[in-house]
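User: I'm putting together notes for a lab meeting next week and I want to include a structural view of one of the chains we've been expressing. I don't have a solved structure, so I'd like a prediction I can at least talk through. The sequence is below, exactly as it appears in our construct file.
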Amino acid sequence: MRRHAPEPRMKRSDATSADRVSAGFSTPIDPSVRSRFEELVPASLREAAVLRRKLGDWLGELPLDAGSSYDILLATYEALANVAAHAYPDRDGWVRLYADWAGDTVTTTVTDTGCGIAAEGHRPPTSGGRGLRLIDEVTDRMTVDTGEHGTQVTMIWRPAALRQHSAS
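Assistant: Thanks for the context. Below is the predicted structure for the 168-residue chain, given as structure tokens.
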């Protein structure tokens, strides 16, 4: 079962296209850009790759620089791949990706109902352990909520392009 529930396209008509161009944005923002993206898919590397592409398409609609888009895709894909590799060792499961653009902030949240992340000293030697450090390095803020109920990784960015955009 797959669920895709994007928010209906929201109007962003506070300023005219000419206002946006004169404020330093070379391309006016399309007033139909969706502010939210959400999907629930089976937890597999193949589905993670599909979600990475779809998230990239959504990010392409936002007034982001290439470096910020890359960081968001890198960190979010790492969280999705972690779910596929570790969350459901003995069974199939699901992963939910939720992304939100509000003002000068982009937030992505990856959630599963798997086995949770083992404490540092209790991880198998092959578990890697570099993914969350990588995510922490490329986000402005990261939180991890984990336990027997599963794991939720929330990643927050405040890209310069969005800070400039929301100031205009």
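A couple of points you could mention at the meeting. The longest strand covers residues 94-102. The CA atoms of residues 115 and 148 lie 5 Å apart.

User: Perfect, that's what I needed.
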